[in-house]
Amino acid sequence: xxxxxxxxxxxxxxxxxxxxxxxxxxxxxxxxxxxxxxxxxxxxxxxxxxxxxxxxxxxxxxxxxxxxxxxxxxxxxxxxxxxxxxxxxxxxxxxxxxxxxxxxxxxxxxxxxxxxxxxxxxxxxxxxxxxxxxxxxxxxxxxxxxxxxxxxxxxxxxxxxxxxxxxxxxxxxxxxxxxxxxxxxxxxxxxxxxxxxxxxxxxxxxxxxxxxxxxxxxxxxxxxxxxxxxxxxxxxxxxxxxxxxxxxxxxxxxxxxxxxxxxxxxxxxxxxxxxxxxxxxxxxxxxxxxxxxxxxxxxxxxxxxxxxxxxxxxxxxxxxxxxxxxxxxxxxxxxxxxxxxxx
Length: 343
Ligand SMILES: NC(=O)c1ccc[n+]([C@@H]2O[C@H](COP(=O)([O-])OP(=O)(O)OC[C@H]3O[C@@H](n4cnc5c(N)ncnc54)[C@H](OP(=O)(O)O)[C@@H]3O)[C@@H](O)[C@H]2O)c1
Fold this sequence. Notes:
Layout: E1 2-4, E2 7-9, H1 25-61, E3 78-83, H2 88-98, E4 103-109, H3 112-122, E5 128-133, H4 140-154, E6 159-162, H5 178-206, E7 209-214, H6 227-247, E8 252-259, H7 265-272, H8 285-298, E9 303-306, H9 308-317, H10 322-334
Parallel strand pairs: 3-4, 3-6, 4-5, 6-7, 7-8, 8-9
Antiparallel strand pairs: 1-2
Helix pairs in contact: 2-8, 4-5, 5-6
NADP nicotinamide-adenine-dinucleotide phosphate binds at residues 84, 86-90, 109-111, 114, 134-137, 163-166, 187, 214, 216, 259, 261-262, 264-267.
């Protein structure tokens, strides 16, 4: 830590622009070419969506609902496993299904106490709710065994909502480094992938299932001090989008969720650490969960990115060239969008 005007400044905010960091001519020209190619591909995707996909989506709007049912879904009771159901977005997903008839909800997360507290808060529900402890930091073999045991006891699982995730904002005073990054990789990637792939294998054998995986807009673009969190979420965004294509022929539908700023424990902690994002930007987790359920149940949506304005902005930022991307990551860090901490 250095002291500027008597105020402690974290290491990460003390960079100085040096002549060495000015891009070379060859690198700048390459970046200009990247921008030109981005404009062309962006126009092509715009025209394709406007002329081909928009008319198709209008035809879909008049197709009778029973023709839009997923293959092999007839007569199946819902068994919905929600990993990360104890609070935040996961708890809101639980509430979305709580009053569905003929439905079993398996609420899972690290701590059985916080799960039970959340379920008691719900009161009486039409759906049957079961609580299961599932710690994503456990050995992958153990996670797989736990998921299979849950499926055997309460299943067959028809829906998986994989919501759990952590950031370094949750704990006060933990400096970013190998340990913090390792824990985030364990929960946000390794544990998450272990439970998704175990459930996917079970669903594949049965030829039916719906999987909804929570990544983040932070995995598209973000401040440099979101380094480890954003990297884990970029992995999940890509993994989930690719699994959607691989799983479709097996009757398993995968939906990726990329939340923007949602008002939960995670972002409350981020705001407590001096994030400069205005309070009004934080949307309700219930709104997020409602869009997630709608996409999972009605199909035809690959990526649920919400709130829409934030999603549109973050997707647009993906088309900037590497020089501007680096500059943007630095500026947004300096603006303390995700607070003063490195996560
Ligand atoms: N909030 C946002 O603005 C935002 C934006 C983009 C993406 N996301 C993503 O949305 C997801 C949910 O976040 P949230 O905002 O709802 O956070 P949250 O309120 O902090 O909830 C996190 C959930 O993850 C569970 N969890 C944490 N560590 C776990 C572990 N080792 N094993 C199993 N479960 C564990 C927690 O369970 P316990 O209560 O048992 O610890 C809790 O249910 C995360 O993947 C997050 O990255 C959130």
